[in-house]
Specification:
It is a single chain. The chain is flat, with a radius of gyration of 18 Å. Helix content is 78%, strand content 0%. α1 runs antiparallel to α2 and α3 packs antiparallel against α4. By secondary structure, it is mainly α. It has 4 helices and no strands.
Length: 91
Amino acid sequence: MGLLGSSLGYLIYGFSTSFKWLFLSRAVHGACAATISTAQAYIADTTDDAGRTRGMGMIGAAFGLGFVIGPAIGDYSGATIFAPPDFSRRR
């Protein structure tokens, strides 16, 4: 739900034509952006004391890995697979 809502917020942001739509896109994205804290709460509630440290570490590792690998995947796919969108021209 969080990723889908954030994607919808970015889509509205890309196609917005006024400040009202920009504000709406940020509101949608902000309402759906609490995915890390939700994952941490789930780990805290479902693991015992010994496994909690490992679970929280896995969340941090996945977050860091996403920061490292995500831009590389985006660069590769943007350069070879997808054409960048051109939202600057209005027809």
